[in-house]
Amino acid sequence: MAVVDVIVPASRPRLWQRVLVERLRACGHDVAVLHQSADPWPAAALQILRFERRLFRRRAVGLATPVEAITQVQTQRPADLRLDLTGVAPPSPAPTVRLTFDGRFSDFAAVSAVAAGRLPDLQAVLADGTVVGRAAPMIDKREATALGIEDVLARAVTLALSVVARFDGGWADERQKIAPATGGAGGSGFVGRYVTSALPRLGREALRRARFRHAHWRVGYRFIDGPGVAETGMLGDGWRQLPDDGTHFYADPFPYAWRQGEHLIFVEDYPHATGKAIISLVRIGADGAVRGPVEPVLEEPFHLSYPQVFDWQGDVWMLPEGSASGRLTLYRAARFPDRWVAEAVLLEGKISDATLFQQDGSWWLFATDRDGYGSTSDTMVVFRAPSPAGPWRPHRMNPIVIDRAMARPGGAFATVDGRPLLPVQDGTEGYGGGLGLSELLELDENTVRLAPPRPVSGRGDWPYPRIHTLNRAGRLEVIDGIAAVRRR
């Protein structure tokens, strides 16, 4: 493990900096803490963040909150690497990594960006401008600056941990140099930006939520011969909707070709009254008509979604998301399709939208990991196992990407002209903002490489083009899209 000097503000450091120090030590690194004088955040900005956290009833201490000074600690060995969390530490013989926030060496620049309605990117940069790591954090609640900055600072921790983990006297990643960031931290004029941009955004969201459901998804399906969405890159025509009465929504559809003349669609079934989803199924006849009512098939004390159903060793299995439980659990059909039993806990943690892929005798699992704080939609992790039941081992390059536009899977892998394509959610315009198709270019025990996603075009007759799931089983293709549904 590396010997790491972490340089923090001498007074009033932020909680994210303390969390990073603690996690580096938990990983086994020999960590020294050094102090450096740095400009504090503007008092008005801290008051605004505190106000918003009270408004949204966030009682836990936020990552942006100033905390007591982090105790200086020296180590007996010279540093292999330095992490400068102030952006202003003097040069050193050891390689020094600084983080840029929206192009500046100050974490407050991210606060200014979020208040202005921008999505700040992060970079880990050496003294000569060489970039050794990147992150494009997802912001889940863009109406609130205090909540948005939490997502950004959470990924600052993830990025820094990743950079240290990959350091071995150098970084194997392809490097690119940037011009050093210039200008201040973005504190000047912050209150004005907040008043003219953030406050109106907060008000618009409050009005929207008063009139409309926060989220209401609708599932589309069609029978199609020949090329579908994965092949053409657009939604096209011929879609039907699963009906709902407005008290539930259906999302995350996974189709299953069961028996002659009948297909099944497994869905997240979310009652607005309870706020906790179960897994249900819908039967689709050969004529495309829904047969019978929606049937609940799996309920747990926690929220369930993303019910990937697959065959293995003569049984039918389901791998739903249950991240609210802190576990990823594999289920087997005791009586298909309506009775399921938990067979194995595969992983611990807040793992979202786990998607299986089989190649060369190994099983691979692509998913997102919340990594303790922040969004569940921007940090891709990959695991490998000899079978779906495990044991699952993390890939040495985890996290594979930190990117709101491609980290979270949005359906099972599709094969087009021999090329594996992973549907990925694009959160650039917000959760459920769109879907892309990313080709898996390289996958082995040392490397995971995905191509930049090709956006799925909304052209066609589906009325809700902001989709976040795509799947197909035989002739049956399914999607979902977010709809504006008024409160009753």
Instruction: Kindly report how far apart the N and C termini lie.
Output: 57 Å
Strands ordered across the widest β-sheet: 2-1-3-4-5-6-7
Radius of gyration: 24 Å
CATH topology of the largest domain: Tachylectin-2, Chain A
Q: Helix/strand-derived class?
A: alpha+beta
Biggest beta-sheet profile? 7 strands, mixed
Mean pLDDT: 93
* Assigned CATH superfamily of the largest domain: Glycosyl hydrolase domain, family 43
What is the correct CATH architecture of the largest domain? 5 Propeller
Low-confidence stretches: none
**How would the global form be characterised?**
globular
How many β strands by DSSP? 32
Strand content: 35-45%
- What is the quaternary state of this protein? single chain
CATH class of the largest domain: Mainly Beta
Number of helices: 6
Number of domains: 2
Report on the architecture of this protein.
The chain is built from 6 helices and 32 strands. The protein is α+β, with helices and mostly antiparallel strands and 488 residues long. The strands form 7 sheets. It has a 7-stranded mixed β-sheet with strand order 2-1-3-4-5-6-7. Strands 24, 25, 26, 27, 28 and 29 form a 6-stranded antiparallel β-sheet that branches. Strands 19, 20, 21, 22 and 23 form a 5-stranded antiparallel β-sheet that branches. It starts with a strand and ends in a 6-residue tail after the last strand.
